[in-house]
Amino acid sequence: MDIFDTNWWKGTSKGRTGLIPSNYVAEQAESIDNPLHEAAKRGNLSWLRECLDNRVGVNGLDKAGSTALYWACHGGHKDIVEMLFTQPNIELNQQNKLGDTALHAAAWKGYADIVQLLLDKGARTDLRNNEKKLAFDMATNAACASLLKKKQGTDAVRTLSNAEDYLDDEDSD
């Protein structure tokens, strides 16, 4: 039998490698439209590195208009966010079809460490989504709200938000 015989496939299971008759195998290759986005959503650093090594566009948009950075922030994957920041020309302030940015996602999900990273990189706090909400308005905990409030400064115009409720609760302790 020739090693390149198409009637046989090489397979590995539980650390053992062997040959399998091709008629025993059904190929089920999954097609992924946005591999970088999927790696970011899943928090899969090695897959993300592979995508970046293969020059997958770091600012590409999925069908919702979101970037991989948005999905990394949405999922709370700080290591993925940090890896994406190593890429030149990463777009911090891309708004998806709902008008949300990576900062909106991190604030809404309550990831203060990621909010801080985004702010340190220069993410804009003045962008409003389609519901006219700032990232500050979407903050769901006091830590995120406090970081965003400091960054916005006192001259930002705000409406009453969940974030202010959390800050009021924190101040009353």
TrEMBL record:
**One GO CC term on file:** cytoplasm
Pfam families of this UniProt entry?
Ank_2, SH3_2
**Residue span(s) of domain SH3:** 1-30
User: Could you tell me the superkingdom of the organism this chain comes from?
Assistant: Eukaryota
In terms of SMART domains, this protein maps to:
ANK
Keywords noted in UniProt: ANK repeat, Cytoplasm, Repeat, SH3 domain
* Residue windows of the ANK repeats: 98-130
Q: Where in the cell is it found?
A: Cytoplasm
Q: Which PANTHER family match?
A: OSTEOCLAST-STIMULATING FACTOR 1 (PTHR24155)
- Its recorded name reads Osteoclast-stimulating factor 1
UniProt organism field: Microcebus murinus
